[in-house]
Amino acid sequence: MNMSNKISFFGEPVPLEMHKVKIVQKLSLNPIEERQLVMNAAGNNTFLLKNENIFLDMLSDSGVNAMSDNQLAAMMQSDDSYAGSKSFTKLEETSKKIFKKDYIIPVHQGRAAENILARVFVKQGDIIPMNYHFTTTKAHILINGGTVVELFTPEAMKMSSADPFKGNMDTDALRKLLEKEKAKIPFVRMEAGTNLIGGQPFSLENLRQVKAICSEHNIPIVLDASLLSDNLYFIKVREEAQKDSSIEEITKQISDLCDIIYFSARKLGSARGGLMLTSNRKYYEQILELVPLFEGFITYGGMSVREIEAISVGLEETMDFDMIKHGPEFIEFMVKELEKRNIPVVTPAGGLGCHLNAKEFIPHLKPTEYPAGSLGAALFIAGSIRGMERGTLSEERNPDGSEHIAEVELLRLALPRRVFTMSQIKYAVDRIHWLYENRNLIGGLKWVSEPKILRFFVGRLEANSDWQEKLVKKFRADFGDSL
Ligand SMILES: *Cc1c(COP(=O)(O)O)cnc(C)c1O
Question: Which of 135, 180, 182, 320 is catalytic?
Answer without folding.
Answer: 135
